[in-house]
Amino acid sequence: MKRSGFMLAASCIIALAALPSPAQNKTPLKVMSREAIKASVVRAQSKHERLIVKFNNGSSVSGTVWLQSDESFSVQEDHGIFGLGESVSVWFSDVKSVEGRNPFVKGVKTLGTVSLTAVLVPVAIPTCVISGLFHRPVLCPCSSGSLH
């Protein structure tokens, strides 16, 4: 009995190992035409949407896009606290594809920012008030250090 259970478990493991993994089922990303890329950039610019730009060399950049000329567009990376990253100029010939950002991600980030603000403001304001009540300022930063 023990031997047949072991053989059944071993057979299942071997059968599962022979199946292709989900990563192998992914279809390779299609190369978009220049006109399709330009249309996506114009649409995203008019709706103030973010795009993920994938380059021919395999790298990618995401952010707000705007058309510069018939040959290029710019991507303003929206990373960091204030969403002000560097601006990257991109040639259409260097782009493999563009895709829209998932709106769910933006909603989660907004919810996180609102939650953090809702927690920090009630803690920070009383802390600053209490700190001001019990501590005297050392010297005014604009004074020369002497007390007159």
Architecture overview:
With 148 residues, this protein is of the alpha+beta class. The protein has two domains: 24-101, SH3 type barrels (Roll), CATH 2.30.30; 102-132. 43% of the residues lie in helices and 21% in strands. It has three helices and five strands. Strands 4-3-2-1-5 form a five-stranded antiparallel β-sheet. The mean pLDDT is 74.
Write the layout of secondary structure elements.
Elements: H1 2-18, H2 34-47, E1 50-55, E2 60-67, E3 72-77, E4 87-91, E5 95-100, H3 103-134
Antiparallel strand pairs: 1-2, 1-5, 2-3, 3-4
Could you say how many structural domains there are in total? 2
* Radius of gyration based on Cα positions: 28 Å
- What is the N-to-C succession of helices and strands? HHEEEEEH
Mean pLDDT, to the nearest integer, reads 74
Number of DSSP helical runs: 3
Short description:
The protein is an alpha+beta fold and 148 residues long.
Question: What labels describe this entry?
Answer:
148 residues; SH3 type barrels; five-stranded antiparallel β-sheet; 3 helices; 5 strands; flat
